[in-house]
Amino acid sequence: MSPLEVRISACAGFCWGVERALELAEEAAEKAPAPVATLGPLIHNPSVITELEKRGVRVIHAPEEAERGTVIIRSHGVPRETRERLFASDVKVVDATCRFVTSAQVKAHNLREAGYFVVILGEKDHPEVLALRSYAGDDSLVVETPADLPESLPAARVGLVVQTTQSREQLAALAAQLAPRCRELLVHNTICSATEQRQSAAVAMAGEVEAVVVVGGRNSANTRRLAELCATRQPRTFHVETAAELDPAWFRGLRVVGVTAGASTPPEQIEAVAERLRGFDP
Description:
Rossmann fold; alpha/beta
């Protein structure tokens, strides 16, 4: 019997923003004033965070926890007020905020300054969205789906920004629901290109295989979104953080399995999953 065929998505794993954040953290661990900490987990991948801790980069949750040394701002960004407190302190600050996230923050701020009521498409409790809302204003509205919209909006001019890891389909659906409820709608598509590339490649692959394995942290929004999108094309979709979670029973009787991964998943974790899959008997 032929071994299980494993196809790895054409676009999977680390994005440019994550690579930059890790490079900044590694450089800080070697050269920056100690102790070194990240304000919140640098990226949403538990294994990577554990490795950084081994190198002396700990995680803190408020600027006040760092009285000295170096603090790295996470790739998801932090609320505006938190950022200001951090830069006003005595620590050295390394800003690892993804530039797509920074762009979304600027657009949210500009919409608010221009008098728009700002709607944010995203996960309410996600750190990126919490930071984004601080630029959009306390009166902004965060929705996860069009169903979360109120029957009437408090303003006739509405601006829409998006968590960088959302899908185009969700953005289009929300814009379609907003348009009839306001006089003016200004949409900023702040989904990052890396997210769009990974989603397109993963969905295309999911339509060609008998099962899909999505690799990445369960606390990673972009990884969860990949799993959701793949499941629409291939119901036999499994989200795992490590190769050890794979169950041979999931793939019994199958011939072709696809593998993709979120933007915070390192290449060695993807290859470890692929290698274990190749060792399963169909």
